[in-house]
Amino acid sequence: GAVVSQHPSWVICKSGTSVKIECRSLDFQATTMFWYRQFPKQSLMLMATSNEGSKATYEQGVEKDKFLINHASLTLSTLTVTSAHPEDSSFYICSARDLAGVTQYFGPGTRLTVL
Amino acid sequence: QKEVEQDPGPLSVPEGAIVSLNCTYSNSAFQYFMWYRQYSRKGPELLMYTYSSGNKEDGRFTAQVDKSSKYISLFIRDSQPSDSATYLCAMISGGGYSTLTFGKGTMLLVSP
Prior knowledge:
The structure holds two protein chains of two kinds.
Chain A: E1 4-7, E2 10-13, E3 19-25, E4 32-38, E5 45-51, E6 57-58, E7 67-73, E8 76-81, E9 90-97, E10 104-106, E11 110-114
Parallel strand pairs in A: 2-11
Antiparallel strand pairs in A: 1-3, 3-8, 4-5, 4-9, 5-6, 7-8, 9-10, 9-11
Chain B: E1 4-5, E2 11-14, E3 19-25, E4 32-38, E5 45-51, E6 54-58, E7 61-66, E8 71-76, E9 85-92, E10 101-102, E11 106-111
Parallel strand pairs in B: 2-11
Antiparallel strand pairs in B: 1-3, 3-8, 4-5, 4-9, 6-7, 7-8, 9-10, 9-11
């Protein structure tokens, strides 16, 4: 149980385009989902916390207009990287917290490369 | 002082060795402690979850929490090359709006 999927797993796009990444909790409901970014050999950096039906809470230094988060249902959250630039190239990982409110389960990650 | 300290390694051991991975923390409000395993280019996988102080065992893995010392450990017995990965400790206070605080991760290399 407790499976989180992400799609796509790998995306390459041109500079200036927008990319949408989906995160789904497959066998449990998640009122809260999280989006992380990870650079090579670095730890996870929390970008934003998303609660179903409300606006996301962004961490300091994360541009909310650039990284649009939508959490429309208890099993789906999306991250849209708008007007992507090469410096946005990174590994983006989502996680979902179960209704008990403690344990987080992570998706497999999405590798974004912006040319 | 960072909230969670974890030696980044790498920690290199021969197959069959007992591995000890550790984290220290400063926030006494942390109540729940987790260990995640992350393979290269993959998302973290939850290995162990412990509430408050004590030990928890699951197969070859044992998690220990000592809240008085603010110190947590993960032991891996009979380590295998497939255990080679980065191990992240994580902790949370458990409040409704609290988020996980991660260590930086320890890279473990188990050689055949």
